[in-house]
Design brief:
Elements (H helix, E strand, L loop, with lengths): L8 H13 L3 E6 L5 H14 L6 E6 L2 H16 L4 E4 L4 E4 L2 E7 L5 H6 L3 E6 L7 H10 L6 E6 L7 H5 L9 E6 L9 H10 L2 H7 L17 H4 E2 L9 E7 L6 E8 L4 E9 L1 H4 L5 H12 L4 E6 L4 H10 L4 E3 L4 H13 L3 E4 L3 H9 L17 H19 L1
Parallel strand pairs: 1-7, 1-8, 2-5, 2-6, 6-7, 9-15, 10-13, 12-15, 13-14
Antiparallel strand pairs: 3-4, 4-5, 10-11, 11-12
Helix pairs in contact: 2-3, 11-12, 13-15
The structure holds adenosine-5'-triphosphate and magnesium ion (MG).
The site of magnesium ion (MG) has 4 residues, from helix 2.
Length: 400
């Protein structure tokens, strides 16, 4: 076995297997930061240099922006600027004299663009973020003799199309895969790895640290504990900012939370929770606005973070001209992961008057009947406004 000093043991293993052991589909999966992207791009560069110049190749990621950030910048370092030139606006590059198309899977027109191509090679960054149709189409375009696909991914739900239709059928397919774990990456600083391990909790820990393809089950926030997270009143704070987060509903409950945020913690001081269905009367946007003003009374609110779909209420808040409004980041899984991290590290606290939040923390669960990662859409209104606040505001100050 040949050993390259500038590679990890696992990466070396892969490079040795690759001499003759590559298949039509070649996948590296496993934990975050485990060295998959790095070695897959080394492999891609080495492979391409030995392939015909007059054939077409493609590199893809969820978007062109992520492709650049995760892959192209690194290829530039690995191959050197003289061997790799590219233009994002033209969506093309040249690597060792071979033409490379660049595509973002979720960018409009991507699928129709590749429909007519005949490809020798494809590189896919973070495959589980692709849609299945695009991936199938890409494979069908790899029609030149000896054509190959290289890809990396973190694990996801075991019902994910890529797990069911490819990984689980690997023995039937011309398929090679290798698992990488975070501890395989000896280039990372040990303290950074310890820190990273603390940042993932529950299902996210199992997937992104342990590398397991596992379902999301049980409570969404099993780490929430009355002793750890509920406090009597917010701590004295110098330099704190105040925010309000809102999950808007007319018939469904509308949940609003008032937050104190400093460099140490985010504290939900109090809340306003109104269920049109339970009270048998829907409130108008003006009435909700009155509740918002009442919640804000005595605080200098930096901004109101709100459910991006609440167009009419956003317009009402803006019309009054008192609060700055920010549309919330509504990526559910990311928001849940961030909220879980803040709870686990003790940086998210709830004052004991927020009884609707406390009740929802006790029941908010993953939907075990769903084949995807989905929460039970019930009693999740305070959970949603908390997620908006954590993902849109608190993460930047508390997680860097
Ligand atoms: N052979 C190497 N030499 C130097 N640094 C490396 C090497 N392999 C990995 N690294 C370092 O480890 C970091 C993580 O590696 P990489 O991005 O390949 O991980 P990954 O498994 O693709 O992670 P993710 O799942 O988060 O995308 C890189 O940013 C780089 O700093
Ligand atoms: Mg990667």
């Amino acid at each position: 076995m040949k050993t390259y000093k500038n590679l990890t043991k696992k990466q070396n293993e892969l490079m040795n297997i690759a001499k003759g052991g590559l298949r039509r589909i070649n996948i590296l999966h496993g934990s975050v930061r485990s060295g998959k992207t790095w070695i897959s791009l080394v492999l891609w560069c080495v492979w391409i240099r030995n392939m015909p110049r007059d054939k077409a190749y493609i590199m893809t990621a969820k978007t062109l922006t992520t492709l650049k950030r995760n892959c192209l910048d690194l290829v530039e370092i690995l191959a050197g600027k003289k061997n790799f030139r590219y233009s994002i606006s033209k969506k093309e590059g040249v690597l060792y004299g071979r033409k490379i198309y660049l595509e973002g899977v979720s960018d409009s027109g991507a699928e129709s663009k590749i429909r007519g191509m005949t490809l020798q090679g494809a590189y896919c960054d973070e495959i589980t973020l692709f849609n299945e149709e695009f991936f199938n189409m890409l494979l069908s375009r790899l029609s030149e003799p000896g054509a190959k696909l290289f890809g990396t991914t973190n694990p996801d739900n075991p019902n994910h199309w890529f797990k069911v239709n490819y990984i689980d059928r690997k023995d039937e397919l011309d398929f090679f895969m290798m698992e990488f774990l975070i501890d395989d990456n000896t280039f990372l600083d040990k303290r950074y790895v310890e820190q990273l391990k603390k940042e993932y909790t529950g299902v996210f820990y199992r997937r992104f640290i342990l590398g397991e393809w596992c379902s999301a089950e049980g409570l969404v926030y099993p780490m929430f504990s009355k002793d750890e997270h509920i406090i009597g009143c917010p701590p004295e704070s110098v330099g704190a900012e105040y925010y309000i987060s809102i999950d808007y509903g007319t018939l469904n409950p509308c949940s609003m939370g008032l937050w104190q945020l400093d460099n140490e913690t985010a504290v939900r001081i109090k809340e306003s929770y109104y269920s049109g269905r339970q009270e048998k009367r829907q409130l108008t946007d003006e009435e909700y606005y009155e509740r918002l003003e009442a919640l804000a009374e005595g605080y200098d609110i930096k901004c109101v973070v709100i459910d991006p779909s609440a167009a009419s209420f956003i317009a009402t808040i803006r019309r009054h001209g008192r609060f700055a409004v920010r549309r919330a980041n509504n990526a559910v899984l990311d928001g849940i992961r961030i909220t879980g991290t803040l709870l686990e590290s003790g940086r998210l606290k709830i004052c004991d008057g927020c009884t609707d939040t406390i009740r929802e923390f006790g029941t908010y669960s993953w939907d075990e009947n769903s084949s995807e990662d989905r929460v039970v859409k019930e009693f999740d209104h305070a959970m949603d406004d908390i997620r908006y606040f954590c993902a849109t505001i608190a993460a930047k100050r508390l997680l860097g």
